[in-house]
Amino acid sequence: MIGGGASGTYAAVRLRDLGHSVAVVERAGRLGGHTETYHDPVSGGSTDIGVLIYHDIPLVRDFFGRFGVPLVRYTGQGGTTNHYVDFRTGLVVPGYTPPAPVALPAYIGLLQQYPYLDQGFDLPDPVPADLLLPFGEFAVRHGLESIVHMLNGYAQGLGDILRIPAIYVLKNVSLSVINSVLTGSLLITERRDNSELYEKATGWLGPDVLLGASVTRVRRGQRGIQVRVTTPHGPRVIHCRKLLVTAPPLLSTFGGFDLDATERAIFGRFRHHHYWTAVARLSGMPAGVSLVNVGADTPYNIAPLPGWYGLTVTGVPDLWGVKYGSTGPVGDQAVRAAIVADLRRLRRAGSYPVELEGLEVFKGHNPFELVVRPGDIAGGFYRRLYGLQGRNGTFYTGAAFHTHDSSLLWRFTEELLPRIAA
Ligand SMILES: Cc1cc2nc3c(=O)[nH]c(=O)nc-3n(C[C@H](O)[C@H](O)[C@H](O)COP(=O)(O)OP(=O)(O)OC[C@H]3O[C@@H](n4cnc5c(N)ncnc54)[C@H](O)[C@@H]3O)c2cc1C
């Protein structure tokens, strides 16, 4: 496994279950990828700053259950009140309330027209032209105006929701997501510590996990695959029959790989969006109040990017979660500085007597949401991408192959296992 986030960890555990020997090469110093938990030394509480919620499907319950991590129903942050603020001015937007989601049944009807979107990118040929429209046009055509702002809240990290092809919105705010929300069946870890799953998996996989590891050379031939890796404990050479790439499949991920022209041409089409999170320790912020960033004068009141999605109650005293996004590249330091400046503006504008005591965590989750242009999708990009499964002994899973949803990625990965194990 190259990459030990949600997909790589799941695949390693399940392939070992099936009797195969595995090795996980993870660049970071821990497994989990976008799953990260902050343990507050002041209150002793924990808050997940990345992946938060899961679908109630047997595979999710089994995966958490085998590692003894209890799940409970997600009921939101009890007692939270949303205030609607334009972070560009620091002012509460007078009179703004989110529109009643009267178009939700119409949106569900559209998702039901494209059931394959809930399974992956196995798209029909030709790809329905509707799915390739900029989502703003798609929304007007189908009368979805009343839920555009709501969908933007679910589609964090996807860039400018009005301009991206509708297919990416429909995949991220999927039938599974809508069903789980409407039935109140979403799950969260009881201890508010999703990282526990990955810590337990790290222990279970033992020396088969190489943390802080970088691939330096991959050679794939008829007689097997050789992966050279540098690790904090020195170089390692892994001999394997199959490779499973779960890291984002940008060309930059494949440094040292013997990519052929087909692989290079396909991965070279991807571009990506940008997403950051932080945990802010605040004083003066009213307890139980979350701020949603809205544009006072923008279409659908969607806040422009780069910018905040919101400042959210965490359930841990004095700690709020920060979500920030951008369509184009912005340096981490610039984002961090913007977050600090925008929090100060809330005070200067007289909206909240808030003081930033410190950013306890600041993290770029980049690259986030790999996408291609509508013309590529129409031209069969995803058919060619899926056609790479098994080529040169290499298989692929992860968000770029389906969607940013751990539960659905585990299901997608599970369905791929027989082919990998064959
Ligand atoms: C802030 C945030 C909140 C989210 N909330 C939710 C949620 O509530 N529920 C949900 O289901 N999903 C959520 N997601 C979506 C999340 O992206 C997916 O659920 C899932 O984590 C994606 O899994 P993955 O395996 O594709 O990628 P990741 O989990 O990111 O794993 C990829 C791994 O590859 C490693 N890597 C990258 N490059 C290399 C390399 N060259 N060599 C070796 N290793 C490499 C990375 O370090 C990482 O560990 C959230 C995402 C973010 C950023």
TrEMBL record:
Domain of life of the source: Bacteria
SUPFAM superfamilies noted in UniProt: FAD/NAD(P)-binding domain (SSF51905)
InterPro entries: FAD/NAD-bd_sf (IPR036188)
Protein name: Amine oxidase domain-containing protein
Lineage: Bacteria, Bacillati, Actinomycetota, Actinomycetes, Micromonosporales
